[in-house]
Amino acid sequence: MIVVTDGESHDGEELPAALAECDKRNVTRYAIAVLGHYLRRQQDPEDFIREIKSIASDPDEKYFFNVTDEAALNDIVDALGDRIFSLEGTPGHNASSFELEMSQIGFSVHPLEDGLLFGTVGAYDWEGAVLEESGRGRIVPPRSQLRPHFPPRLKNHAAYLGTGVSPGRGCPRGGGRPRGVLRDLG
């Protein structure tokens, strides 16, 4: 979770319970204090910084940032992005292989007899996938089932698997042509 704020909360009494729930769910929290409002008005930001640090996961050196103003947010984007991508949704310590964490479900949808087939663009390290939601439940084929149809050597061309899940639809990339794969997901 990323919290970016330029002022103290107005519901601070709810903060301890919210943080306890985050801890219970093992939610990593980044907190960014934007000090512009305080600096422009020559106000002491000590209480504000203390509250925002309490929101950030420990240690503060890794999960808390402060910037002088809104424009300075650009200065921390790369550092924050690197930290989040080395952490979020990846198996193992500082792993960098994504499964479904980066997928954008619903980019394309196809009606089935008793449900829907969704494209999941971004799944499997941006290779893409599909998800079936039907009377049979929720089915997502594992990467290993898709690899024969979209081998690693075609990764840059297969990265949009899931953009079009209806016949005749697709979003070819890099001058490629749409490729269809008919499978029974069950």
Automatic annotation (TrEMBL):
GO molecular function: integrin binding
Residue ranges annotated for the VWFA domain, each copy included: 1-80
Gly residues biased stretches: 165-178
GO cellular component terms, A-Z: external side of plasma membrane; integrin complex
PROSITE patterns xrefs: VWFA
InterPro entries, per database record: Integrin_alpha_N, VWF_A, vWFA_dom_sf
The name this protein goes by in its record: VWFA domain-containing protein
Species of origin: Patagioenas fasciata monilis
